[in-house]
Amino acid sequence: MSIKIGEIPENGLLNAYGLQSDCYTDCFYIDVPGSISFSTYVYAFFNTPVFKLERVLLRLFASSPSSDNDVENLASGASDGLSIWNVEERGDNQMIMSVGDGPIRTWLMCCNSDISSGTTRLYFGSAVLPTQHDAPRDRKMGRTFRILLGFHKQYSRVLLLSANRKLQKRPLLTLN
User: Fold this and answer.
1) Helix, strand, or coil here: 74?
2) What domains are there in the chain, each with its CATH number?
């Protein structure tokens, strides 16, 4: 199983940003065996060892703590926030979150395929909206993000692979 880069599905919430000019979007996905609910995917994603390290760093450097219970509440829909993220829009199988009031969006989506293949496609993507202070040549994305784009793409792959590993070690908390 490997992470692939693809187009945002037509029904993907991230698509609204992908259609905007000067907005950077990306879409990573992996097909995993079995049927995985969206809430289970969200719970696994934000509780991987990699993301738990990010949560610790956000607690230390951004004064924005989060707990496993906060992740459970986000995954189940009981909460619309986690640390620096706020749910902007949520559907049955996806959600898009803003990072504070800034230009960054994070998107998760989960699609069960047809029964014959018995797989679930897990999506993870981002959007970076142009900011008012970006110079014309940097309108596609902020200068800092453009510099860090290579790291962002590798980190996105690591996060999705880590979620897949956590899901393969089930049983996880099953949320519906």
Assistant:
1) helix
2) 4-168 (3.30.530)
